[in-house]
Specification:
With 96 residues, the chain is an alpha+beta fold. The protein has two helices and five strands, in the order E-H-H-E-E-E-E. Helix content is 21%, strand content 38%. 23% of the residues are buried.
Length: 96
């Protein structure tokens, strides 16, 4: 994922602190991870769910991209719950 500047929402900073996720973890996932979902109708900017690993720990990062200035805004980050995600953490489990 390409961007010129990386910003963090207040929500993202709070969640990162609570979950022990560092800025370097976010940068690693955004530069080496895979986009597993696109939310192109999100406002004010399209957002993306990016999945990557920090050592053996899966990490999901939701990031919005401003096309005006190629700024990436981290919305939130979390370790995916195996009860919600299929093996590999790329697909949500079907709900019944």
């Amino acid at each position: 994922m390409e961007y010129d500047r990386l910003d963090f929402s207040g929500h993202a900073i709070r969640r990162m602190f609570e979950r022990g996720i560092s800025r370097s973890h976010i940068q690693h996932v955004l530069t080496s991870g895979d986009v597993i979902a696109e939310y192109l109708d999100d406002k004010p900017f399209p957002s993306f769910l990016v999945m990557g690993y920090i050592k053996d720990r899966p990490l999901h990062v939701v990031v919005a991209i401003s096309s005006d200035d190629q700024r990436a805004i981290v919305v939130t980050a979390y370790n995916p719950d195996p009860a919600i995600w299929e093996e590999g953490f790329r697909t949500r489990r079907k709900t019944t």
